[in-house]
Amino acid sequence: MVGIDKINFYTPNTYIKLEELANYRGVDPDKFTIGIGQSKMSVPPISQDTVSMAANAAYPLLTKNDLNNIDLIVVGTETGVDESKSVASFIHQLLDIHPFAKSVDLKQACYGATAGLMMAVDFVRLHPDKKALVIGSDISRYGLNSSGEVTQGAGAIAMIISSSPSILEIEEVSVSMTKSIFDFWRPNYSKTAIVDGKFSNEAYISFFSELWHEYKNRTARSFEDFSAFCFHLPYTKMGKKALMPLLDAEAPNNKDLLLEHYQLSTTYSRDIGNIYTGSLYLSLMSLLESTLSSLKENQRIGFFSYGSGAVAEIFSGKLVPGFKDALLTKQHDTLLNDRISLSIDSYTDMFNDELAIDSEGNHLFKQDKTDNGVFFFKGVENHQRLYGKNKE
């Protein structure tokens, strides 16, 4: 049995209320809060980047035993900080993991963390006495007053994969699909993504439908074999758009249960925004940590991972006995409830704050006063990114 032993998320300490942003942009707030299903959007200060967020997500999970037995670190990201050096190599040093662990990044839009999870599961199956650390960390940026502005966000998830998981056993059968399309992409020369919104939605829905039918053919399973389905959520209405057409033939009780659990899985994303590679696993935490969830041990959860461009996968997992005891519900409540709400001006300034590197490759700064992360980005010296760690 191999699966998720521990899981955590981190998001920056600052956010903007989308109702206020809508009013400022002259848009009906219902378009944001109901139409796409988002309420708040995390906004990262310059002192929080893909590396620091990843370290902040993983750090609370790690015991001395983990540090000595993690032999693989995989980071899924589409907003890495270097064209060559991996985020995982930074993480290896910041978290003080033993020197003989492999550390790599995987990139395929929002699918990267799932690719990392599958790689980690295979690794632990071959090395059951070892563990793997899987991270998804990203900053979603489309630009101020852009069509995608309201679906931005920032955050990271971290999972420890082991042969004695405390939360979820990952089942062996999964189905993947690849098509080379341009629904969402970011050229190397662009700081923001290019999105064909209508086509992207259509592709997401089509991929789920095709994969589900292939998954059914290979496994002989139906929706009745699942107590919940978690989705990659670029915004919280997206998964429902894909799920609803396939539930028409379902018995009312089962349909209602899946939709109820789907809604619970969207809570964290609604208040954080799109975190790209980590989004699917944020929805898992949202579902499991909800006080309204009726999920029990040995029940099966389905997962739909989608990364534009495009690669997608459907897989499943079973909840293990005592899974609720391994969740960090209180810590997550505190993290979200203690955040600082930004004014429009502060949000604009924070969004526009960029490194001003001189000809020698230097730009150092102090940690943003609103930033309460344990790990933080300090700037660049001699073209090298530097990170700091606060005392706890």
From TrEMBL:
Residues 2-162 form the Hydroxymethylglutaryl-coenzyme A synthase N-terminal domain. GO terms for molecular function: hydroxymethylglutaryl-CoA synthase activity. Residues 172-247, 259-388 form the Hydroxymethylglutaryl-coenzyme A synthase C-terminal domain. InterPro entries: HMG_CoA_synt_C_dom, HMG_CoA_synth_N, HMG_CoA_synthase_prok, Thiolase-like. Its EC number is 2.3.3.10. SUPFAM superfamilies: Thiolase-like. CDD domains: init_cond_enzymes. Keywords: Acyltransferase, Transferase. It comes from the Bacteria. Pfam families: HMG_CoA_synt_C, HMG_CoA_synt_N. Gene3D superfamilies: 3.40.47.10. Belongs to the thiolase-like superfamily. HMG-CoA synthase family. This is Hydroxymethylglutaryl-CoA synthase. It comes from Vagococcus luciliae.
